[in-house]
Task: structure prediction
Amino acid sequence: MTPAILLDTIIDPALRLVESRYRTDEARAMLIAVALQESKITDRRQVLDAKKPWWESRHGKANGFWQFERGGAVYGVLTNPAAQRFIVPVLLKLEYPADSEIVHDALIHNDVLACLMARALLVTLPAPLPWRDDPAEGWRQYIEAWRPGQPDENTWAAHYATAWRANCSGQAVSGLTNHSGRPAGPRPRPGVAVTATPLIDTLALVDWPAVLFPLLVAVAIAYMIRMDADPNTKFKIVQFVTNPDGTGNSASLAYCVALLVMTWVFWAQVVWHELSDGFAAIYAGTFVAGGVWRASISAKERTAALQQTVEPPL
Result:
């Protein structure tokens, strides 16, 4: 298989299953380069007989064009928290369990899954993926992520250059420069915004819903605490779970606990990008119903208080 076919029929379709922030030209180039380095994009299983095709050769432990071993990269992706957040939604979409044996066997023929497992492994790297003029950093990251038993650095530079040629149109995009300041030519991709401003590109990678939601919750809690401490207001946080006479209200306490748990689940689903419309509607409905319920209780309490004030003494 050629790098161009790998890109057009496997990598691009696979990356359409994940967020646009993972569909970068750096990621595409690394995926091509690693596939060339690991299997030459010819071996769906690890080949032990060098001159035989993979279906005739004795097999090693690694499967797929990116050569994942069950107890190595497959296990690592399925247990690493960052990789889990990436790959678990993908497994659900492709109807696979998070089972190392099943996933490892599927990598032989499911190239989309193999590609996304490799992309998940790249997610675990702390450093940004390298640009086209930095094959040395690409090699360092490949070694860190794949940990090959017999690494051959002599072939990496050629594979890396081939990967970038396959990934680029060869024509400079007006106003676009690479990290060294020289014109570059990544071909446009649907859903990926590329600008000439590093700050804008960096901000575009931030998962804003996951960041802003806990921030807004913290602001709301801080505001309630401030009101509770203000002697000029009648608002007290303890009123959420007590009756007017100061005794505890089990129903109010249960509602507050349920709302806190649902808020945590809401944020977790936002972070994992699995927030469904149904759960969002249930969460909003619970919040609104609780507000209406508390308002009705307050109205009854005020009515009872007024009745006591207007009743003539016996």
